[in-house]
């Protein structure tokens, strides 16, 4: 009887994961958001700005994105604890900082995938062997 009572619940969870993605990734996201909320205001403002940028240009896959945001929270928690000034974290060019940060999480970036696909297509058109299969489909 217990198995039957758990079956509809498990089916609903499976359906939700198909629609929204793995629930474990959602849990990681909310844990990250709680960590950011506990940062001092200026660090929180910087992280939220980074978050907006990363949502557009960072990894799209759940596990890779979750890892990236957890690392971001680690960085800013340590920086806040050490009293590291915001400008010292970012340097003079915040875009250069975030682009370098994203290089560690390249697997999910749709921009990087499209750049590679474009570069490989041009190489193939030029008669060069890229060693990459065409994934345009």
The CATH first-level class comes to: Mainly Alpha
The CATH superfamily name is c-terminal domain of poly(a) binding protein
Count of DSSP strands: 0
Report, as a whole number of angstroms, the end-to-end distance: 47 Å
Helix content: over 70%
For the sheet with most strands, the description reads: none
Global shape: flat
By DSSP (H or I, 4+ residues per run), the number of helices equals 7
The CATH architecture can be given as: Orthogonal Bundle
Order of helices and strands: HHHHHHH
CATH topology: c-terminal domain of poly(a) binding protein
Q: Return Rg in Å.
A: 20 Å
SS-based class: mainly alpha
Q: What are the low-pLDDT stretches, counting only 5+ consecutive residues below 50?
A: none
Tally the structural domains: 1
Percentage beta strand: under 5%
Mean pLDDT: 81
What would you note in describing this structure?
The protein is an all-alpha fold and 137 residues long. The protein has one domain: c-terminal domain of poly(a) binding protein, CATH 1.10.1900. Helix 3 runs antiparallel to helix 4.
């Amino acid at each position: 009887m217990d198995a039957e009572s758990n079956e509809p619940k498990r089916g609903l969870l499976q359906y939700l994961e198909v629609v929204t993605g793995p629930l474990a990734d959602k849990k990681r996201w909310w844990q990250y958001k709680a960590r950011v909320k506990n940062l001092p205001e200026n660090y929180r403002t910087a992280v939220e700005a980074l978050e907006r940028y990363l949502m557009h240009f960072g990894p799209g896959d759940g596990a890779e994105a979750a890892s990236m945001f957890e690392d971001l929270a680690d960085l800013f928690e340590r920086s806040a604890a050490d009293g590291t000034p915001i400008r010292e974290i970012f340097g003079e060019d915040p875009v250069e900082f975030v682009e370098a940060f994203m290089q560690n999480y390249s697997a999910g970036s749709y921009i990087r995938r499209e750049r590679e696909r474009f570069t490989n297509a041009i190489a193939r058109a030029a008669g060069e062997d890229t060693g990459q299969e065409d994934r345009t489909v």
